[in-house]
């Protein structure tokens, strides 16, 4: 009888267990992926290996069983995700941390394997892994709490091939009881650079190891820390549908009346005009070692009439600032097809960067005759007119480009500079462009256009 009463009491306690206690006792699984070595990128993402190692160690201290993977091809990434899904049981806390390149297409964010072959937008869905699909699969497998931490709001070489400038990441459509955190705002890119550690990850690690705060509060504090450290130039994006109490480290205490919000506003400083240093052009040895250039060169050597490979190689050369080589490839493509608007636009942009402004203007006009709605050609012609001192024409071109592509940091920055040179303010356009792409001033410096120049 006594034994029966004990069993009955245990059953009642189990039935009455709170959601918070269930989350605290649930299995915790994490998949940490760090993709640093993309052949298409001009340098290895050195911070990725360091950050994924630190995140792995911190999650293990928080009780997660962690599978850490590096530099995954598409096949390997698919296998790793399938293995992760298979380990999820009902009630599990499931977390994915991805550090590398991601890209948005059709309002979805796709995480990219290191062997992604992306030249046009349809290639994104073919080679990438939809974050929405990953979160939905975690939910289908029974995860009680779904967490996605994405440090991939970087400008990457893939977007530059078919959009000219990075458009950042798209909002995640996450199932209930989910937390999603991006390292930068929607549609924005974090500042690039060859660093050993990411500011975003440094803030994240400090907050998730803090005891007595909820996971949602930890991620909110991470966001606020990055905002404060960058003077609001980088604003992580956080989405939460969490209804269950969960903490990375220790129990959750009841929140006080003091709600955590954005950092206290600081007095704005007087803007200082600083001329950024443009990235140096690569050496011949650097280009010879580039695997993408080598692969395209092999295809061209095997078939001299392969204009697609020659156009792609021209794009890669132009992105890497090897302008003379880019011109040679675009010349061949245009000779074979004089009405190729995209090739004409790319040659216009290349000529504008090298100072051949009249030739650039001719190419841009021909590109717009071939395709009057080509926003990239309007953007390129805006740069040409800006460098020619035709500020009114530049403002019109950039405005027309923005109407077709409101997320173009290039067009916004160019219009801001043109407006300023025409005697207006331009500060709003310049600030918005920098928030979307912190490296935009450096890129324009490479074209010979700076905020400081008259």
UniProtKB/TrEMBL annotation:
TPR repeats lie at residues 375-408. The keyword Calcium does not apply. Residues 1-23 form the signal peptide. It holds the Pfam family Peptidase_C14. One of its GO terms (biological process) is proteolysis. Keywords: Signal, TPR repeat. Residues 26-98 form the Caspase family p20 domain. One of its GO terms (molecular function) is cysteine-type endopeptidase activity. InterPro entries: Caspase-like_dom_sf, Caspase-related_regulators, Pept_C14_caspase, Pept_C14_p20, TPR-like_helical_dom_sf, TPR_rpt. Residues 249-287 are annotated as: Disordered. PANTHER family: MUCOSA ASSOCIATED LYMPHOID TISSUE LYMPHOMA TRANSLOCATION PROTEIN 1/PARACASPASE, MUCOSA-ASSOCIATED LYMPHOID TISSUE LYMPHOMA TRANSLOCATION PROTEIN 1. This is Caspase family p20 domain-containing protein.
